Amino acid sequence: MNVRDLRKRVPYQIQRDVLDELSVDQVAEKSDFKISTKEKLRDAVRCTGPRFKSCFLSFVPLLTWLPRYPFRDNAIGDLISGISVGIMHLPQGMAYALLAAVPPVFGLYSSFYPILIYFIFGTSKHISVGTYAVMSVMIGSVTERLAPDSDFMIPGNDTNSTTLDIIGRDAERVKIAATVTFLSGIFQLLLGLVRFGFVVTYLSEPLVRAYTTAAAIHVIVSQLKYSFGISPQRYSGPLSLIYTVIEICALLGKTNIGTLVVSIVTILGLVAAKELSALAARKIPVPIPVELITIIVATVVSWQMDLKTEYGVEVVGQIPSGLQAPVAPAVSLLGSMVGDAFALAVVGYGIAISLGRIFALKYAYKVDSNQELIALGLSNAIGGLFNCFAISCSMSRSMVQVSTGGKSQVAGAISAVVILVILLKIGELFEELPKAVLAAIIYVNLHGMMKQFGDICSLWRTNKVDMVVWVMTMILTVLLNPDLGLAASIAFSILTVVFRTQLPKYSILGQVPGTDIYRPVEDYHQVKEIPGIMIFRSSATLYFANAEMYIDALYEKTGVDVAKLLSHKKKLEAKRLRKEKKAAKKANKEAKKRAIEAADKAVGPDPDSTLPQAIILDLSPVNFLDTVGVKTLRNIYKDYGEAGVQVYLCGCQRGVVESMEKGDFFNEKVTKSILFSSVHDAVLYSQQGNSKEESYFKM
C-alpha cells in the first residue's frame, strides 16, 4: 500500500464551536499593532555602518564575489569561454551596427565598454551582454527617423544631380544612437534606484516572445537592401514596414547581381557550416567560430576579386583603429526620443532579466532584479558617452558562454579584452568585408526567433488568451513599429487581465457528502446543495468593473430577483392597506380582524415561502474591495434582508475586511458576526437558526 492510498484512508474528526469573525479574533488574539508610515520612512532612511556596507556591496557586486573567486576551479573555463564569446562579438557587433544604421566599428565599441561596466555591477554569472538584434533595430528606427538620407543630399556637379553626404549622415546617426542609448540608460538607472524592477512583470513570456519575433521581421526587412544592393526610400511611423516591403518589391529590377550572389552563397555556406558545427559539437569541446571564419573568408575573397570596384558590391569601408574619447550627449535631441528611450530601457531589461533568471534557477544562485536594472543602466549611460548603442543580452552568445565552461562574469571581461585587441590592431583588416555578408549573418542568427511561430500552436492547446496576446503583439509590433508596438502590446495584455475579471465563472456550491468540502454543483455528480441555503461564489475579485455583473449573476444563480420581489411585496402591501381601510369603514374591531384575514386570503400566499433561508457569499477569491465593491455587498445584504433572506459572508481576507470597515459596511445592526472563516461554519450557523451556542463544527 503506497502513502497516497494510506492517506486516503486515514479518518479525522474535529469538534469545535462555530466561529464567526469576531470569535476568531478573540480566540486567536488578533493584533492591532501597525507600523506607521512615519516609522517606515524613518527606518528606510536610517543609515548605520553595517547597513551602509551592505548597500555599497550590493551596489558593486564585484567587491563581493571577486575576492572569493575560485581561481583554480573557474579560471580555465572562464578563459576559454571568454575567448569564444569575444570571437562571436566581432561579426555580431559589426552586423548589428548595420541594424542600428551606424558604421560597423560602433558595434565593436558597443561590445567593449558596456561589457566592462556590467562586469563590475551585474549579478548574473552566465548571460552575455552586448549587441542584440532587437535592440539594434529599435535604435535603427530612431536614427533613420531623425536623420533620414534626404537631409544629407548635396547638389552635384550637374544641375539636377545630388549626392549623399555619407560621412555627415553617419556622424549624425552615431550622435543620435549614442544619445538615445544614454537616455535609456538613465531611465534604467532611475528605475533601479527606486526599486522598480517588478516592471518586467508586465512583460509576459508570450508577449516577449511575440515581440522579439515581430522585431526579427523588422530586422529581416531592414537588411534586404544590403542583400539586393538597392536603396529603398526610408519610411517611418505606423505601417512603415508594409511601405518598405512594397518599395523593395518595386526596386527588385535594379538588384545588384554581384551583391545578391554574395548574399546567397554566404547564407548557404553559413547554414551548412552551422549544421556541421552542431554535429561536431559532441566531439569538440569548443564551438567552431563559423561566423568569424565566414567574415575572414569573405574579406579575403572581396579583397582578391575587388568586388567593390568590379561588381559594385557595397563594403564596410574605413574602420578606425583605437578607442574614442567620451562625448557629451546631444541634449537638444532628448525631447524627441523619450518614448523610444523608455521602450529601449524596458525591452532591454526584460530580455536580460528573463534570461538571467533562467540561468540563475538552473545553477542555483540569485539574480537581483533591481541591481540588474542599475547594471544595464550604467552600461548604457556610460556606453552612450563613448558612442555605443543600446545593449541587452544575447541568447546565442550566452549559450556559448555556458557550454564552453563559463562560470562567472570573468568570462565577459575576457571577451571584452578580445574586442579591445581587435579594435586596436585587427579591425582595419575587415574594411573590404561586404555588407551583404553581415546581412546574411543576421538572417541565419534569426532562425531561432522565427521558430517561435510554433508558440501559436502550443498556446492554442494550453491557453487561448495567451495565444491571442501572442498574435496581437505580433500584429501590433509589425504594423506600428517596435516602439509603439510595445506600448500597444502591453496595453492589450493588461486589457486581457481586466477582461478576464469581467467574465469570471459564477457558481452555486454544494457539499461533498460527509465532508466540510464545497464544490460547484455543476462540476460534480455527487455534490448536493444544502436545503434552504444558497452558496454563491465568483472566481474573480469584486470591483467597479464587474460589480453589476456580480449582482446579476447572483440573482440568476439563486433564482431570486430581489428588485422584482421587493416591488411585488410593495404592491401586495399597498393592496393589503387598501383592503384594511375599506374594512375599517364598514365594521368594528372584530369585524375588522375578519376583514383583514379575508383580505390576506384574497391577496394570496406569501411569495417569501419559496425563498431560501440564507445566502452565503464565498469571498475567498476576492483579494481586494474598492468602494463600489463594498457598496455592492452592502446593497446585497440590505435588499435580501428586506426580502427576509439572511446573508452571510465567508472566506474574507484581512484586506477585504479592512476595506469593509473603512467603507462603513458595519454598523450597530450589521456586525462582524455575519463573517465566517469557512463556508462550513456559515452553513452550520445558518442551519442552527443563528444560535452559535448550540452549533458545532463536527466531522
TrEMBL record:
Read off the InterPro entries from this record. Answer: S04_transporter_CS, SLC26A/SulP_dom, SLC26A/SulP_fam, STAS_dom, STAS_dom_sf
The record ties this protein, via Gene3D superfamilies, to: STAS domain
Q: Where are the transmembrane segments?
A: 96-121, 176-198, 241-272, 284-305, 341-361, 373-397, 409-426, 470-499
GO CC term, one of those recorded: membrane
* Lipid bilayer topology: Multi-pass membrane protein
Q: Which residues, by range, are in coiled-coil regions?
A: 567-601
Q: Which UniProt keywords apply?
A: Coiled coil, Membrane, Transmembrane, Transmembrane helix
Q: Which residues form the STAS domain?
A: 523-686
Q: Which GO terms describe its molecular function?
A: secondary active sulfate transmembrane transporter activity
List where in the cell it is found. Answer: Membrane
For the keyword Coiled coil, the answer is yes
Q: Which NCBIfam families match?
A: sulP
The protein's name? Solute carrier family 26 member 6
Q: Which organism is it from?
A: Cyprinus carpio (Common carp)
